[in-house]
Amino acid sequence: MKAANEAPGGGRLKIGFILARSFTLSAFALFVDTLRLASDEIDRSGRVLADWQVLASTRHLITSSCGVQVAPTSDFVDPRELNYIVVVGGLLNNEFPVDSETVSYLKRAAACKVPLIGVCTGTFILAEAGLMKYHRTCVSWLHYQAFRQRFPDHDVRADRLFNLDQARGSCAGGSSAADMAASIVRLHISNKAERNALEVLQIEKARSPSDIQPRRPPFIECKNPRLKAALIIMENHVDNKLSIPKLAASVGLSRRQLERLFREETKNSPALVYLRVRLERAKRLLMQTKAPMIEIAIEVGFENASHFSKVFHKTFGQPPSKFRSEISN
User: Fold this and answer.
1) Class of the 215-328 domain?
2) Whether 156 contacts 137, CB under 8 Å
3) CA separation for the pair 55, 200 (Å, rounded)
4) Least packed by Cβ within 10 Å: which of 122, 218, 225, 239?
5) Is pLDDT above 50 for 2?
6) Where in this chain does the entry annotate a coiled-coil region (predicted)?
């Protein structure tokens, strides 16, 4: 296998894009435009230092989730001609986001040791093909539970923006697609090319893989990145199956350090904040669904509806049944 920063044949950085049915246009556009602006001086759009193609098994237009269509620019090429293959996903309600020929091509690329990247829900496509099992996967907090349900034996997290190694990459989507593309530009082309692309895109600085997704429970104001990460992880484990020591380890702290951080930033212990996160999820379920009380209780980590009702009442001043009836009236 070639070195991670060596282009095939020693030439330009070459990337092939595979767009799923109902793909996310913004993630694709930010990724490819970062390459375009890094490839040439200022905004000339020449393919001097990088090249890219939209690969597909047919030349049929591919419709994005917003309705805009993109035409493939190439049939499937020898994957060894590419530095990366980037799979851009989108809506999860499409049973067949790509065809079987595309899946076969991705498996052939993996066998050829070509790095594969899943952007947005492109990670689901790679995982469904059996290509993410032994790699850490980064997904959006929005899709974390769906990924866990479909691929329970995969290593996945939803607190970071993206993850990239020599074999696989994954990205939460949205603006983080530009951050991942910038890291690839910096690795394969130069810091100057990365800076040129970001300045034209009006992005002050690319975020790193260790940066935290901009998501937190609405009842807590915080700026500390480790606290933000801990809160996202709590939201992704409202079934209460994550111990505080494990939570601390997941953000690179000891239990004592995590306790101190929460006391300083929130004036509460991690356990109490975790309970509040679970109860806030219960409130949303009470407002947005007609699920029986026992189902909601179990989903947010209580063994029975009675205990759930008691804790809910103590926290919010009324039982969940009254809260639901007032919301519906």
Assistant:
1) mainly alpha
2) yes
3) 27
4) 218
5) no
6) none
